[in-house]
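Q: My labmate handed me this sequence with no annotations at all. I'd like to see what the chain might look like in three dimensions before we decide whether it's worth expressing. Could you predict it?
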Amino acid sequence: MYRIERDLAGQTDAERFLARRLRSVPILKQLRGWLDETITAVTPKSTLGKALAYSHSMWPTLIRYVEWGYLPIDNNPAENAIRPFVVGRKAWMFNDTARGAQASAMIYSLVETAKSQQDRTLRLAADPVRAPACGRYR
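A: Here is what I predict for the chain of 138 residues:
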């Protein structure tokens, strides 16, 4: 599926929609047939049974991307965007005081906001270590 999506990079939404109908939908139909057949042959409480049950219950969500050309196959960009915030949240647990935690959160929020907005000025101000050599950063 991802190889198909890689081949479709740069295509218009309409072209991607048509290509998905021709290339992805047959594979998804085959996968659904295997899923329906296998789920009845596996113990529901087993690890495989739980995985198949989850796939079965999430099927409408899984195939949603083939219904529209503009939808991505997954939400990896969103996952990657929130990862720094999750890492920062775990780091805040090690602050000694509430004020220290609040200050860390504010600085981290400033840096991540600047990065997400691709604002070079804020990024340099928030990260003086990587800023160009300047008298006040020495």
